[in-house]
Write a structure and sequence with these properties.
BUG, alpha/beta, 2 domains, Bug_dom1, 313 residues, D-Maltodextrin-Binding Protein, domain 2, 10-stranded mixed β-sheet, ABC transporter substrate-binding protein
Length: 313
Amino acid sequence: MLPSLVRAQSAEAGYPSRSVTYVVPFTPGGSTDVIGRALTQKLSERLGQPFVVDNKPGAAGAVGAGIVARAKPDGYTLFGGTISTHAINASLYKNLPYDPVKDFEPVCLVAMLPNVLIVDPKLGVNSVAELVALLKRDPSKRNFASSGAGTSTHLAGEMFADLIGVKLDHIPYKGTPPAMMDVSGGLVTFMFDQMTGAAPLAAGGKLKLLAVTTGKRIALAPQLPTMIESGIAGFEMSSWQAVYAPKGTPKAIVTKLNSEIVAILALPDVKDKLQTQLGMEIVASSPEQLAAHMAKEIPRWGALVAKSGAKAD
């Protein structure tokens, strides 16, 4: 047997032998954090060592991604990556502290997430058409929040502005919860964000959901029209969540992590939380499938960034 193969098998057999850090590049409470905590709890139980979430928010996930890109590639630092960190940021930032392809090992594409258009119930609008009419007649309302500059929620707002022909001011936050708080408080007119954080607040009457950004209506909220059904032709986008390790992490460890994560995503309680309660579409891909997904998404979002003129703040 080749020495390299022996070392790889040894690394897998003994992994993990101590605590593993799972970096979430956004504040607690958002989709990436929810997924990270669901996965780390189960990984800890299954593998017998603590898997601990470490929130490192900032710059649409670039701060956390930069930390992981420089981490030792031994399997003891993992990353909760997103459409922002591993697709959009590649074209939005001129000087990223990491390369989404060269600095990471893809582990698993976890899930696709529908975005929703959110407003304050007290705003007095009940449809996308009514929101568009308000934005066109009242300059003081021409603003939108996002979970951070360069996130898919930022670009969704830019695309919306482009398609309705109204210049809007972008107000970035360091994560979903504070952005939603200001929308629900009437300080910002609207935002796009994942159903994950929006659904509970909408159920409690603190937010109103107007439409989903997917091509079809979603099972979690079948009453919500799509943006296209609401009259915004060509508006379709979905976010995604994935797991990565630093480039150079032994293949045996990446394979073991992928196998465990895929198994975890098939567990009834995890499926119920992510799929039924939060509206995520579980993917549970192989590392190769995640790499292929990124190869399509990076140029796609690059084109959208160029068209919208969006820039990182």
